[in-house]
């Protein structure tokens, strides 16, 4: 593209960025104010920790679907019955590692003056690699038992549901079953999940607000939870800005609020951060995660924060049932989601202008033959990704890959530490073979076609990129903004490079478009203790549905276009200029 046209694009980009900043600044507002309860708190940390210790030491290996897990649910039933609750339990099925397992959710409902329900939830199962599971999630079970005791002695405005869910370590399957099939779910106006009382001294609370596949905690609940928790003298950490965009793009929560947000129920998770994060990382899902690592002061702070939030939800005059969604900015204010999408769209504005200019510049050489040639090249490049997808799905259908309920195995599970490299090798080997075959066939078949011209090829690729961005934006605007914005900018502004040095720099710039995806991948691999096994995890995620076909194919198409942008840079200089 001519220097003058490129300068025009840069000006449009600057205007779009300024407009996005102005919209964010002018239209952001504080979340609706809801009163935080000032009622005296009755939470007894000694009693809660004692209940947690008795529970985890009597049932140290509460693996989902095991006999000991079933026995531990009996302990919960006995404890709740002793408090005067009428207890019910609900069985549900989930397929783990190609085996059907039966889980049990334990529920106790306290009737209030209203039929509206505030639900308090904690999962009680453990990972296969844990003994006792003090952090995950025995201490929170003790907190919830203590809250059940506290509220059993006082009248409440709303009904309270105390739910101890099973299968939390396997993608929150117990919570998902409740969110989908609990008979009174239509009466649940708010839900508080309790997950992760960190070992050692607490440094802060952490709020989890992400929904599963869709949904996010509403601003009023995020603000109320933050104010209720901060009343204990600790800081409160929650996602905002770029981190929240990542959470909304991935929509893969790790605690029980996720399925309820997906079902449209306002929900949030109360977790915590240790003052010794290195030690916590060592203990997480390990045999050392015992209740002995949990300090009474930590249980007290966590329990009082949970009680204050529960009382605030119970005492609120009204609870919004359909509050507007919004994104939290670093300033502490929220930007309504429709306006956030407008802001995200503005950042892509230069892409459309550049496409128009590129087509105008290539008009003299942009004929059907040039367009067809590039489309064939794109199809041939995309074919290995299609084969990879079909290979993973076929391996799953043949039971060569383990089956899980949406989420693959939990962090540090032996199934993740021992990939089946034979299956992966066969699937990826087939994709690589198809890639070489496609390249050879395409190279031979296109010999008789007109020689490729850079301007025409780039115009075709930019048109496909605009279509990809549009489809991704409709599916998940946060995903589109996070993973496609930088490629859209770089691939748009990088022009023809006649010299070898220029082509090398251009190719490096094109590859830089993958940095956001690489950063998210590395962060997730670190959090899940995957190491070099992240390819195995992602194969399982694609096989079991955590990664949807739509998301996979949009990502594959973006990678395909990146490869083609690199390929047209690699043409001989004589072929990149339509005038030679």
Question: What does this protein look like?
Answer:
This protein is α/β, with parallel strands linked by helices. It folds into two domains: 45-332, Aminopeptidase (3-Layer(aba) Sandwich), CATH 3.40.630; 367-576, no CATH class. It is built from 22 helices and ten strands. The chain has helices spanning 3-27, 45-58, 67-82, 134-152, 173-181, 219-230, 241-250, 257-262, 277-283, 296-315, 337-347, 349-361, 368-397, 414-417, 421-445, 454-475, 477-493, 500-511, 515-527, 534-544, 549-569, 573-576, and strands at 87-96, 99-110, 117-123, 159-165, 188-194, 202-208, 235-238, 267-274, 326-328, 334-336. An eight-stranded mixed sheet has the order 1-2-4-3-5-8-6-7, with helices on both faces. It has a two-stranded antiparallel sheet with strand order 9-10. A hairpin with a 2-residue loop joins strand 1 (87-96) and strand 2. Helix 1 packs antiparallel against helix 12. The protein is globular. The two termini are 16 Å apart.
């Amino acid at each position: 593209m001519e220097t003058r046209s490129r300068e025009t694009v840069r000006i449009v980009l600057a205007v779009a960025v300024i407009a996005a900043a102005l919209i964010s600044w002018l239209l952001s507002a504080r979340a609706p104010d809801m009163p935080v309860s000032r009622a005296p708190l009755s939470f007894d940390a000694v009693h809660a920790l004692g209940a947690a210790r008795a529970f985890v030491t009597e049932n140290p290996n509460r693996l989902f679907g095991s006999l000991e897990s079933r026995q531990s649910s009996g302990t919960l039933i006995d404890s709740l019955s002793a408090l005067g609750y009428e207890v019910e339990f609900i069985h549900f099925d989930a397929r783990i590692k190609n085996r059907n397992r039966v889980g049990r959710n334990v529920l106790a409902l306290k009737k209030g003056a209203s039929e509206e329900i505030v639900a308090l939830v904690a999962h009680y199962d453990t990972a296969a690699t844990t003994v006792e599971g003090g952090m995950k999630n025995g201490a929170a079970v003790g907190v919830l038992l203590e809250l059940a005791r506290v509220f059993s002695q006082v009248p409440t405005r709303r009904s309270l549901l105390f739910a101890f869910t099973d299968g939390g370590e396997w993608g929150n399957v117990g919570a998902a079953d409740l969110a989908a099939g609990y008979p009174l779910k239509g009466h649940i106006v708010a839900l508080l999940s309790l997950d992760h009382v960190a070992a050692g001294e607490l440094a802060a609370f952490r709020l989890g607000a992400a929904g599963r596949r869709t949904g996010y905690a509403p601003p009023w609940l995020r603000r109320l939870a933050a104010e209720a928790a901060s009343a204990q003298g600790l800081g409160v950490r929650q996602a905002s800005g770029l981190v929240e965009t990542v959470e909304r793009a991935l929509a893969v929560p790790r605690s029980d609020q996720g399925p309820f947000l997906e079902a449209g129920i306002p929900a949030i998770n109360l977790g915590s951060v240790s003052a010794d994060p290195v030690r916590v990382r060592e203990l997480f899902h390990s045999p050392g995660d015992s209740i002995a690592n949990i300090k009474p002061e930590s249980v007290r702070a966590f329990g009082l924060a949970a009680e204050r939030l529960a009382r605030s939800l119970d005492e609120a005059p009204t609870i919004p049932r359909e509050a507007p969604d919004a994104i939290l900015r670093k300033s502490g204010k929220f930007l309504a989601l429709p306006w956030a999408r407008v802001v995200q769209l503005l950042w892509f504005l230069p892409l459309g202008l550049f496409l128009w200019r590129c087509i105008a510049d290539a008009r003299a050489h942009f004929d059907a033959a040039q367009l067809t040639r590039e489309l064939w090249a794109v199809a041939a490049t995309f074919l290995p990704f299609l084969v990879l997808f079909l290979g993973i799905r076929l391996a799953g259908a043949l039971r060569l890959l383990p089956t899980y309920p949406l989420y693959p195995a939990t962090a540090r599970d032996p199934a993740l530490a021992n990939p089946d490299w034979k299956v992966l090798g066969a699937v990826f080997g087939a994709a690589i073979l198809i890639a070489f075959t496609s390249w050879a066939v395409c190279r031979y078949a296109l010999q008789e076609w007109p020689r490729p011209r850079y301007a025409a090829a780039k115009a075709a690729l930019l048109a496909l990129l605009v279509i990809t961005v549009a489809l991704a934006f409709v599916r998940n605007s946060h995903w589109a903004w996070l993973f496609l914005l930088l490629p859209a900018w770089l691939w748009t502004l990088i022009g023809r490079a006649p010299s070898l040095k220029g082509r090398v720099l251009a190719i490096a710039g094109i590859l830089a478009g993958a940095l956001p995806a690489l950063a998210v991948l590395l962060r997730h691999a670190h959090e899940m203790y995957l190491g070099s096994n992240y390819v195995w995890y992602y194969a399982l995620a694609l096989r079991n549905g955590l990664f949807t076909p739509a998301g996979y194919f949009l990502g594959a198409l973006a990678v395909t276009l990146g490869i083609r942008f690199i390929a047209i840079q690699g043409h001989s200089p004589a072929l990149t200029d339509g005038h030679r």
